[in-house]
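Next comes this protein.

***
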Amino acid sequence: MTPDQIAALFTRPDGSFLCARWGRPVAPVIFGLSDESLAVFREATRAVFAHAGQPLTDTDPEMGTNLMSFFVRNWDELAGVPDLDALTGVPGLPARLAQAKADQYRLFRFDPDGGIRACLTFVNMGGALADAHPGILAETLAVRSALTFAVDVTPTPELAQLIRAAYAPMLPVAATDPAYALRLAARLGAG
């Protein structure tokens, strides 16, 4: 991947750049899946973060869980999530997602050093994703929660290398300068 290709992955529509990784162990929890599907999603999460070299844990000491995934058949089901507005900081989220005809939504929270503190993912399995292969969807969602991608990415070997490079201990947990893509590209070339 070239520096320009890497920069495009983390550049938002407003032109701002943010590449952040988890700065603390990841404590995942998944709501709304059957036991059979749950195992697939747990294993995909384990695999993606193991490849990145990022530890998983059962409990975050401050938050309990910090990687929360909610699966629903329609956005109205989110009304049953206690204190959803406080959890997300986005009032009326179910109505907004329904109006936008979104099939998923991801929200990050950050620590003072810029590292990812929490990630909330909401997935509507009643629409376009109804026929998605569980293994492919699980890997895709895990990859998209590993870094603050500004665009929807699809898992590839190149993307896996990029994630691993971004988790190199000598790199900062977060960067807002697009020139950071040069450092990531150099890590890809070295590894």
